[in-house]
Amino acid sequence: MSHDLSRLGWDETFASAYRRFDRSDASAGRVLRADRGVCTVLDATGVTRASLAGGVLLTAAGDPSRLPCAGDWVVLRHWPDRRVTIEGVLPRRTTLIRRTSDKDSTGQVLAANMDTVAVVEPIHPEPDDARIERLLALAWESGAQPLLLLTKSDTSADPEAVARQLAELAPGVPVLPISVRRHHNIDAVREHARPGRTLALLGRSGAGKSTLVNALAGTPVMPVQQIRDVDGKGRHTTAYRNLVLLPNGGAVLDTPGIRGVGLLDTAEGLDRAFADIADIAARCRFDDCRHDSEPGCAVAVAVAGGSLAPRRLASWRKLRHEIEVESARQTARLAGAAGNRRRRH
Ligand SMILES: Nc1nc2c(ncn2[C@@H]2O[C@H](COP(=O)(O)OP(=O)(O)OP(=O)(O)O)[C@@H](O)[C@H]2O)c(=O)[nH]1
Ligand SMILES: [Zn+2]
After folding, report:
1. What domains are there in the chain, each with its CATH number?
2. Residue 276: CB partners within 8 Å, gap ≥ 6?
3. What does the entry list as the binding residues for GTP (predicted)?
């Protein structure tokens, strides 16, 4: 069977990056699933299992973010003994990164080359504002277009009102209440996974991601968890990350429950997720105003005047603090690595 890779998002940019690897025993493919050392990859001839070539392993030893992940476009090499290896990862257009919570402060790439990153939050029980803000910052940081999906809209008396309220947390982000059960707004979601497009889902366990993937695919491709407890807290079921191909083209990426998914060390995602605060901050007297108690702080004026919610500023402060801690850790790690190198000489 031959697959038309353009339905999966293959385009001229990827094709030109691929050209310098091109040889008769090579092919281009997209990673559907990445396990330790082995990837499931789709190329024009079908699905294969591929191991990592020495060069890829070597690069990744110094920087784990260079390991192939779900959504990556890779160069496959087909050996005479039928083995298949991944010889290279083509430059990524967008990336979702998880900051590992251990001391080693490098990021792990969860998913690559998605066009839209949907933050998935159940409308019931009460949506968690802080989690939405955090995940939206991560979505912005990925470089893809963020989207906020409020799942299980059938469990809310007035989903549109909840959506309007939450839109304040999400400047510049479309907010969509959806229900798989009632088939509410599912076609609107499908637009983001139309042929050539990739939609990634980011949300806590039990948010309804697998149910949505199955609805988009039109057939069960992911296990859906049975919620046993009455308060709606789910068990953790999805431990892997899969790129699911939709029957009509397009793809959906499910990322696991978000425990441990954090921000990396850049403030860019934060600035975009909090564009309302960034706009006001442009009028602060000092360029590097921290909106604590500096004179001439426009953000403090906005809070006092009621045009900016105090909890919104509190969320911004908390996430900014995390980013600062994280970048300090990275600096320390880099300094430590340099020290180790010196000692070895
Ligand atoms: N009422 C209602 N329940 C839904 C809807 N979508 C999903 N659910 C339920 O929510 C629960 C969790 O759904 P999952 O799809 O397994 O959640 P998940 O985000 O994939 O969870 P993990 O796999 O743990 O990451 C299941 O019991 C679903 O039946 C919906 O539209 N309406
Ligand atoms: Zn200020």
Report:
1. 5-91 (2.40.50.140), 96-254 (3.40.50.300), 268-344 (1.10.40.50)
2. 168, 171, 308, 312
3. 151-154, 203-211
